[in-house]
Design a protein that fits this description.
Length: 266
């Protein structure tokens, strides 16, 4: 029996024919694809540490932070969820050094299909990681901007006509509209933008298709978490996005539990 114990972070991904996943536990990286089809035991060790400062915290905010860090570190700035609110290009930031590397750098606006068509924004360095984290089945780059703010402005315009959200339940049940033609949708998106924003649309029409390591998709979904289920044993049937999919329709969002100390046995 193999045993790993430590604080967890969101799974690392590598885009291959099938997405390859590694789960950080303490100082170890566990190759999770190898565990699909096997029975696992996950135990919450009643300890949570902030993923920024490491302090113990009774609960987390913003997927892994203690409250003090949540309201102060740049990683939880309002522009993370709402890029159009970014002010780094005006010299306003919780930490300008951080913003220079994360906000004042090239960003992509993209179109993806994770359940239905959606628009999103991410740093250029986060492609295709962002798509895999969202459980996207396919994606295309729409526009490239020199900073986060401008990407957010484009996204706001397009959100008037399409969603910026993923239906995580449909994504995990693989209820995905694969009939969406991303090249056509990109052309439609270009037409929706004014000339000031159209200049950022790029000619790259490559479509990235992503397959996930799943034996069988659940027909219904029951989300579980360590706050209510501290000890769980079951067969792992797949991984998609940042979710572990178990038999009996149970799913566990790993990213939501950043900083939780667990023991993994298999």
């Amino acid at each position: 029996m193999a045993i790993f114990e430590g604080n967890i972070l969101k799974m690392k991904t590598v885009l291959e024919d099938v997405v390859q996943y590694q789960l950080p536990i303490g100082n170890e990286l566990v190759p999770v694809n190898e565990l699909i089809g096997k029975s696992l035991t996950l135990k919450f060790m009643d300890e949570i540490n902030c993923i920024s400062c490491g302090a113990k915290t009774p609960k987390t905010f913003g997927q892994g932070y203690c409250y003090k860090c949540f309201i102060s570190v740049p990683e939880t700035s309002e522009c993370i969820l709402n890029p159009e609110l970014c002010q780094a290009h005006l010299g306003i930031s919780r930490n300008m050094e951080w913003s220079s590397n994360h906000c004042l750098t090239s960003h992509y606006v993209y179109l993806a299909v994770s359940s239905g068509l959606k628009v999103g924004v991410t740093r250029s360095s986060q492609i295709p990681t962002r798509w895999m984290d969202q459980g996207a089945s396919k994606a295309i780059k729409l526009a490239m901007t020199p900073n986060r703010y401008l990407a957010g402005v484009i996204e706001v315009e397009l959100k008037k006509h399409m969603s910026d959200k993923t239906s995580w339940q449909k994504m995990l049940k693989n209820e995905v509209d694969l009939e969406v033609n991303l090249e056509n949708e990109k052309q439609k998106a270009w037409e929706l933008l004014n000339s000031d924003l159209q200049q950022y649309v790029i000619e790259d029409d490559e479509i990235t298709e992503i397959k996930y390591p799943v034996i069988s998709y659940p027909v219904k979904i029951k989300s579980v978490g360590f706050d209510t289920l501290k000890d769980y044993s079951g067969k792992l049937t797949g991984i998609k996005g940042q979710y572990l999919i178990f038999e009996n329709y149970l799913v566990l969002n790993i990213r939501k539990h950043g900083g939780y100390k667990i023991k993994l046995e298999f």
